[in-house]
Amino acid sequence: MARPKSKGLGDTIEKVIKSTGLQIFVDGKDCGCEERKEKLNQLFPYRFKARCLTEQEYNEYKEFKNTITLKLSREQVNYICNLYASIFNRQVWYPCTGCSPKPLITMIDKLDKVFESYEN
């Protein structure tokens, strides 16, 4: 039987504790493990859910998609990073643009999926 996928850090810690046999120290006791697990899952989720775009965000992203080129301006990079953080409820992070373009491409791909959900 396949184990369910972990939703976050709390589920992973629970799996480690059970697989190592450490749960015998708390079996039958209410140690707050379930509450701690849920709190850790909320703080450190493995999959970030996107919120809906506002009408303004939708229109701005549509304009961005129509003007995107191979080389993004600093303003466009900042726009993508800030929008991504807002939509996916993440801390704003600006990747090194001189290193690899992959982080920005990943952000744009994920934003595209959210945007395209309105197009269908």
Write a structural description:
- With 120 residues, the protein is mainly alpha-helical.
- The protein has 5 helices and no strands.
- α1 (9-20) crosses α2 (33-43) and α4 (74-87) crosses α5 (102-119).
- The longest helix has 18 residues, at 102-119.
Write the SSE topology.
Layout: H1 9-20, H2 33-43, H3 55-67, H4 74-87, H5 102-119
Helix pairs in contact: 1-2, 4-5
The secondary-structure class comes to mainly alpha
Mean pLDDT across all residues, rounded?
84
Main beta sheet: none
Poorly predicted regions are: none
Number of strands: 0
Summarize this entry quickly.
By secondary structure, this protein is mostly helical. Helix content is 57%, strand content 0%.
Quick tags:
120 residues, single chain, mainly alpha
